[in-house]
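Narrative progress, year one. The postdoctoral researcher (J.K.) led the effort to move from monomer predictions toward full complexes, under supervision of the PI. The following entry was the first complex the group processed end to end, covering 920 residues in total.
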Amino acid sequence: MVAEQVDVVVVGAGLAGLVTARQLTRGGRSVRVVEARDRVGGRTYDRVLDDGTRVELGGQWIGPTQDRIAALAAELGLPTFPTYNQGENLLDLAGRQKRYKGAIPMINPVVMADVGQAQARIERLARRVPLDAPWDDPRADVLDSQTVETWIRRNVASRPARDLLRLGVQAVFAAEARDISLLHFLFYVHAGTSFDSLLSTARGAQEQRFLDGPQEVSVRMAAELGDAVWLEAPVRSIRQDDHGVAVTTDRGEVLGAYAVVAVPPTLAGRISYDPLLPAARDQLTQRMPMGSVIKVHVRYDEPFWRGDGLTGQATSDRGAVRVTFDNSPSDGSSGTLLAFIEGAEARHWSAQDPADRHRVVIADLVRYFGRRAGNYAEIVEQDWSTEEWTRGCYGAHLAPGVWTAYGPALRTPCGRIHWAGTETASVWTGYLDGAVRSGERAASDLTALLGATSAPGSAP
Amino acid sequence: MVAEQVDVVVVGAGLAGLVTARQLTRGGRSVRVVEARDRVGGRTYDRVLDDGTRVELGGQWIGPTQDRIAALAAELGLPTFPTYNQGENLLDLAGRQKRYKGAIPMINPVVMADVGQAQARIERLARRVPLDAPWDDPRADVLDSQTVETWIRRNVASRPARDLLRLGVQAVFAAEARDISLLHFLFYVHAGTSFDSLLSTARGAQEQRFLDGPQEVSVRMAAELGDAVWLEAPVRSIRQDDHGVAVTTDRGEVLGAYAVVAVPPTLAGRISYDPLLPAARDQLTQRMPMGSVIKVHVRYDEPFWRGDGLTGQATSDRGAVRVTFDNSPSDGSSGTLLAFIEGAEARHWSAQDPADRHRVVIADLVRYFGRRAGNYAEIVEQDWSTEEWTRGCYGAHLAPGVWTAYGPALRTPCGRIHWAGTETASVWTGYLDGAVRSGERAASDLTALLGATSAPGSAP
């Protein structure tokens, strides 16, 4: 195993790392991407079902104002298509099931008024959170001292309205309202435009899907980078001195002028650093846990719910599966329901027997879509909390006190080590678009640094 | 590097790990203790100052009902002596400085009534939290949905009273009231008898010190264990199968029937496990961050504050140093003030220039104890957040949502891997006594398992 010298060693071949590497390569810099898995794409991961259709086991959607992932996909020639959204949605709340059209369920007007005023207040508070420095919000001290659950209990009167808001939080974070700092919630909402946008299909974060699957974005970038990408090369340690970095992987050591670590913060914190990282950075990564989600795809011979005038989108305050989508192929040649098990339900069901888990998933789908939902052809699960190189999805969340105490450590480079990954984005953080933006930022920062220190190839 | 076979491999030579190893050894079992540092004692660590007196840079006190550390110290022949507590304490609150005797400062009676009712409610709520399963508290859902800060703001009217309670939380956890779940706070209080007990010197958790220093407890146990303790052997990975465990350290691999991991949870989470640990365990260790504390010892030729009728114990709502103690040698032959920088102040000051940090420490001591505090002979700091093999002190705390979602994963063994360390104790968790208790529990559990499976020495 011979050490080598590149301009930048990129840790992680997810979207963020590959965007970093691609942009640097295009600027004439040499890179080496080291990836722990035997595949690229990180939290995007597609799989072909028995009938040949492709489903998205990880991050999958793209929506309005997600301009950087859109531009990248367009450049790579990867088209998108609308998430199936025709007909009525289902709401199963407080023991009653309703069908409704559009984003707002027509339930009890008192409840809807309660939800409406809460959402309006959320949007108003969120707009003021500075995206580059949430800790600079004038009310940061108050907002970062409480959980979202505390805010809900104090500001929302009716129980169904509270449950609807909790569901919204679970759907966005794959965590519970009690796990999350109100300041972090508001920052995240602002970074994704609005709470309404995060929750919406039409004109929202779930608007479009990738025809060839979202992982293909990474696959294409990796193909461009060729031999520069090492798979099955988990990083164990990173040394640095005044001259460069040495990244030790299971496939050998890579030397570079700089490193970009583009993995979830909790995994970045498990790498051994020499010299040690500053206390603020280490204590930050002790405080950025990943959410909990199991994505379950259930395939049917046809998308039968469409014939019933249903979008396939259900929301419920009970059951293991509380959010569903129609994840059928674009031509509707077969039918696939995407059932999300999120937050507390995911933590519980992760440890259960698969057969039991399948049973409750199907029971929930039958409750939403009728008896035909019981007659499925295939079921495929992806439990992100059991993935060694992710350890939870969709992303990291921050408990109270973390932004105000440790915020600046999220992006501040530690010597020659820079940080990327969707958690480090200030726009669309937690989304594919945030991952792309974080990679672009890291590449720009390093281009400036490399330009200032040495010409390409002139290693110190 | 030849692999070997022992009954139990113990990871970590702090109090918990050494107690585990000692008890197993006395029961006729073979052990190997692997320790990352070049010393034993973990979060207990003593140092001899220039004048030959010893100071405690880590955990240091022992108090009533801490029976297991007391028994161990007695058995090892290590005497204790009372923390200096004669005279009056200082309280610097809301811009005014008061002297008072005993545990309760005589300030504004309205404020004292406010603090008193809050503390009474805390004690009442805490007594109900089940020590072995805080998540079983009938009100766990409500208590684990909010921060301590939320509770203080809702239940304490006056600002000085709120500040006093926040100070109490900082002093106990080296973290802020906003960082901590109310349920965790109440559990911790119950585990240490009462909030009053945690905060008190006389008849409280700060009552006694070790004449030879607390680290000596570990040094004596390690001496008994002899060659069974490997220093400078950080553990990188643990494999297990039906027959045993293989623990890989920088000094080689150790094979055993079982392993006990007796390091802080956040460090246990950085070890690589094969097979992977269950999601619940990994996600738990993503959610148990360490507190932030810098212990500063300032030595003087004599304990001059004693002549002024002061105990050396000051409490303040401002400054870098908000809690102090007299940490002079038992014979008072010289004077040492112990200045705590805790929580948010520690996070800030950890990153500053040492000279600047020393300046603010001394300025705070002068504010409390007068001009003579500026005339010091020696200053020694210990910043636990910069220690690679601790990464913060005093211990781990839990944010809202963690106990209720992940509680059982704290002590449940993962196959042949068991867990010890003060964070796993249900009595005096976070204290020396909790560490001893956790080691005793782990040793008992393993003795039962080993007895049931094979006689000592009869390796599979």
